[in-house]
Write a structure and sequence with these properties.
196 residues, alpha+beta, two-stranded antiparallel ribbon, 10 strands
Length: 196
């Protein structure tokens, strides 16, 4: 009996720790490449992926040139997940483009994100602590960050490393969509530094 009671308390403590590890996602208001505003509040009740990006970063190219990022975007937006790519590159820095250049490159790469948001002053990026491109944040329907960090466990810009990698983003989304606990809630992001 004591063993059962101990197990119950252990499980309860683990759930409490898991809940405590989740933090509220900072709100934001950012314009997309078409000049349309997006706020986190407008996506309340939905799963949201925030993908910090910089199309000139070799680590970002690893996922886009192989079609991996676009395939993930298409798969999960098809499951009613909102996927927002965010660029915090400041004017004059690598990865900062005009709206027209953004549109051209998005079309060229076949981007399937719900929107690409421009964070030129870096306020949103700093609020989230986005340090690298890519840097991923998964927000649950209650507005809590349930995963943040790297997309996968292959800390390389080599496109050949995509195959066979453990994909933390996929694990988090699949768990969330099926009502299961997210296996890993945080990893260290890798890639180019965000060009604030």
């Amino acid at each position: 009996m004591k063993r059962i009671i101990t197990m119950v308390f252990t499980v309860a403590a683990l759930f409490a720790l898991s809940a405590a590890a989740q933090s509220a996602a900072p709100s934001f208001k950012l314009m997309d490449v078409d000049g349309q505003p997006h706020t986190l509040d407008q996506y309340a009740g939905k799963i949201v992926v925030l993908e910090w990006t910089n199309y000139d970063c070799p680590f970002v190219k690893k996922f886009y040139k192989t079609g991996t990022m676009q395939a993930l975007q298409k798969k999960y937006t098809g499951k009613d997940v909102v996927w927002l790519s965010v660029c915090s590159s400041a004017p004059g820095k690598q990865g900062h483009f005009s709206s027209e250049e953004w549109k051209r490159r998005m079309k060229e790469d076949g981007v399937k994100a719900s929107a690409v948001l421009l964070d030129e002053d870096g306020k949103a990026g700093r609020a989230y602590g986005a340090s690298n491109t890519p840097h991923i944040f998964v927000i649950n329907p209650e507005g809590k960050i349930i995963y943040q960090g790297a997309i996968d466990d292959k800390r390389s810009a080599d496109p050949a490393t995509v195959a066979g990698a453990r994909n933390y983003l996929v694990e988090a989304l699949d768990a969330l969509l099926t009502g299961k606990p997210v296996p890993v809630s945080e990893t260290k992001a890798y890639g180019c530094s965000v060009k604030y």
